[in-house]
Amino acid sequence: MAELGADAIKVMKTQDLKYLRAVVSRDKKKEERLRSSLHFDHTQEYGEEVQRKNKKTLFVDGTEKDAKKVLRQNGGVLWDEEEEEGKGEEDDNDFDNDSSLNPQHESAVVSEPTSDDEYDLDISTLRAANKKPKTEAELKKINRRQTKIKKRIEKNRLKSYAELRNREERRQKVEVALAYMETEKNMNAKGAKRKVVEGDSTKPPVYKWRRKRAK
């Protein structure tokens, strides 16, 4: 079997360098996508938590029309029983006269309207207000389903974090190999050189070439 010449070996090493650079670039892009995905999940959960905290209770008869009417009467601000306490008898009389705010009516939880979508109501919640109260068995079933979903989401998130760590470790190893190969390539350059920094398992040695005086 014929041995490869110096030029052929040089070409192969050059191809290896290009391949390793492509691997590093590809892994960096995948890592960035994973980080963005994990950051988006965290931001989405935070937003949902804030949204839950910003929800108030509005007593309506279960129809979208009456709910919008109440919102308009209150200047787009949802009525809240705790906020109404201590405002005086005048507010109490207004409350008694307005049948749409009577606590005897069914309650529905809706989100506060935003400037972009004024008086936008949670129709699914309003419809749910018309349904019969759920039994204890149904509530337990819903809780079990929600717990199962949360566990699956957490499992997928941990899996994504593990994949991100593995990709980072792999990329770092490839970068070390790439640095060694580039150093080896530079060693073929002409001129006197000396080692200025010793190498180790994480980085190659550093050489310094003597500068030639231009003639």
UniProtKB/TrEMBL annotation:
Keyword Cell membrane (UniProt): no
GO BP of this protein: rRNA processing
Pfam family, one: Utp11
Biased segments, Acidic residues type: 79-97
Location(s) in or outside the cell: Nucleus, Nucleolus
Alphabetically ordered keywords of this record: Nucleus, rRNA processing
Record carries keyword Nuclease: no
Entry superkingdom: Eukaryota
Region described as Disordered: spans on this chain: 26-50, 71-119, 189-215
Family: Belongs to the UTP11 family.
Name of the protein this chain belongs to: U3 small nucleolar RNA-associated protein 11
Organism lineage string: Eukaryota, Sar, Stramenopiles, Ochrophyta, Bolidophyceae
